[in-house]
From TrEMBL:
Lineage: Eukaryota, Fungi, Dikarya, Ascomycota, Pezizomycotina
Family that this chain belongs to: Belongs to the GST superfamily.
Name of this protein: Elongation factor 1 gamma
GST C-terminal domain mapped to chain residues: 88-220
Cellular component terms per the entry's GO annotation: cytoplasm; nucleus
PROSITE patterns: GST_CTER, GST_NTER
Alphabetized InterPro entries for the sequence: EF-GSTs, Glutathione-S-Trfase_C-like, Glutathione-S-Trfase_C_sf, Glutathione_S-Trfase, Glutathione_S-Trfase_N, GST_C, Thioredoxin-like_sf
Pfam families, per database record: GST_C, GST_N
SUPFAM superfamilies (UniProt xref): GST C-terminal domain-like, Thioredoxin-like
GST N-terminal domain residues: 1-83
Length: 229
């Protein structure tokens, strides 16, 4: 029996979209194994990822990787001819910079804004308002960077674009509504460009951009669950 590469993740998981899109772009076979921490995890999975997070990669050669950035870099590097890791070594460093920025500061701020509204983290109006401001502050960095460029790095499509667009899809689908988007036109145009690419659409056929941001959760939705993000 031939072993396949596996990615343990859940459908539409923002930390997995870029991994799957780059795999598609370089024709690297990965089977998605539906795994959702909010639904419950098997003992077997907890041996692979001891903090019970997704995604986790298990390669056909036995490689086990946690941390979405490491997985994305590993997958992208399977095709040495591909430009997905940037034309130069310095571009590669900038790719890692943007991936890290989005996977840490942007995701944390967005999650603090959105998860309480979805009822998957405790809700406090003040906390949500603060997280909304802090998200705008982080996205402004991307907006300024993209003002005179089409791509995050090196004026060509790289892993940074696919990976970061996947991460912020969570914002566009829930709170980056029409009014909010008008304040970030370059960031929004970049997102529309990346999400319309065939390799992105192969993973995420539909891109949701909300008209009106989520409002406060109803009392029955509120929770005390505390996922990190
Ligand atoms: N440092 C990890 C974080 C992974 C992570 O937090 N994943 C989220 C899903 S996108 C998760 O598993 N959350 C469940 C929880 O925190 O309980 C990475 O960058 O891959």
């Amino acid at each position: 029996m031939t072993l396949r590469n596996k990615l343990y993740t859940y459908k539409g998981g923002p930390r997995s979209i870029g991994i799957l899109a780059v795999a598609h772009a370089i024709d690297f076979d990965i089977e998605v194994v539906e795994t959702n921490p909010q639904v419950g995890l098997s003992e077997e999975y907890l041996k692979l990822n001891r903090l019970g997070k997704t995604p986790t990669f298990v390669g056909s050669d036995g490689t086990v990787l946690t941390e979405c950035m490491a997985i994305a870099l590993h997958v992208a590097s399977q095709d040495p001819e591909s430009r997905m890791l940037g034309p130069t070594q310095k571009d590669f460093i900038y790719i890692v910079q943007w991936m890290s920025f989005c996977n840490s500061d942007v995701v944390k701020r967005m999650a603090a804004w959105i998860l309480p509204l979805l009822g998957v983290a405790p809700y406090a109006a003040q906390g949500v308002e603060m997280a909304k401001k802090q998200t705008a502050q982080a996205i402004q960095i991307l907006e300024d960077h993209l003002r005179d460029r089409r791509h995050l790095v090196a004026d060509c499509l790289t892993l940074a674009d696919l990976f970061c667009a996947g991460l912020v899809s969570f914002g566009f689908a829930n709170v980056f509504d029409k009014a909010w988007r008008s304040g970030f036109p370059c960031f929004t145009a970049w997102y529309e460009m990346v999400t319309s690419l065939e390799m992105y659409r192969a993973v995420q056929p539909e891109t949701v951009m909300v008209e009106i941001a989520l409002g406060p959760p109803t009392p029955s939705m509120r929770t005390t669950y505390t996922a990190d993000d």
